[in-house]
Amino acid sequence: MIILSLPSPAQSLLPTSFKTLNPSRQNIIPSSDSLKNPNFEPLKNRLIRQLDVGHLRHAISSLDLMTQQNAPPDLTTYSILLKSCIRFRNFQLGKLVHRKLIQSRLELDSVVLNTLISLYSKCGDTETARSIFEGMGNRRDLVSWSAMVSCFANNSMELQAIWTFLDIARIGVLPERVLLYRRDSGLFEREVLMDWGDNLRVCVENRLFWG
Description:
The chain is α+β, with helices and mostly antiparallel strands. The protein is about 50% helix and about 15% strand. It has nine helices and five strands, in the order βαααααααααββββ. The protein has helices at about 30-35, 40-50, 55-70, 75-85, 90-105, 110-120, 125-135, 140-155, 160-170, and strands at about 1-5, 175-185, 185-195, 200-205, 205-210. A five-stranded antiparallel beta sheet has the order 1-2-3-4-5. The chain is elongated. The two termini are about 25 Å apart. The relative contact order is 0.16.
């Protein structure tokens, strides 16, 4: 398994010509209407309390109840629920939440999309993760790229992880320093340090082998 660590932020210079995800959708934000509904906050708070104690199915029932009572969940609610599904490693429920999110016709932001990449990465569905990533277009940020590198690395697709990482440089998302660790069965094996500058220097176990 390869773990990617990005110690410093970078500026994204992604081309604007990339396709956006679901371009036909309108920027529908039901939270304004939801906030007018007195049931919205109590139901949302109930959902959060249920997640705090790990009751994912009860939380999804609260999500459905919000829609039924004309207090549709906002992106924050979906984001919290998705992250809880990842946290408790209940990926099937996470996929269910994703389907409900699609049905809501909310315009997804990069935070939710990055969370979805993480969800499908952790359950081994690299194709769906890649599809979401590619559909983000110019909404991809350093977190998105890091998530995809981790997705490939954690699913035994090391070469694809390396090529995706190199795409970061090609497209213009340039971290000053990137630290890669390779671990097997939780044991530290080797360290790869990549510094971006005039040349790419790759050091393995403190020995320069290519530059």
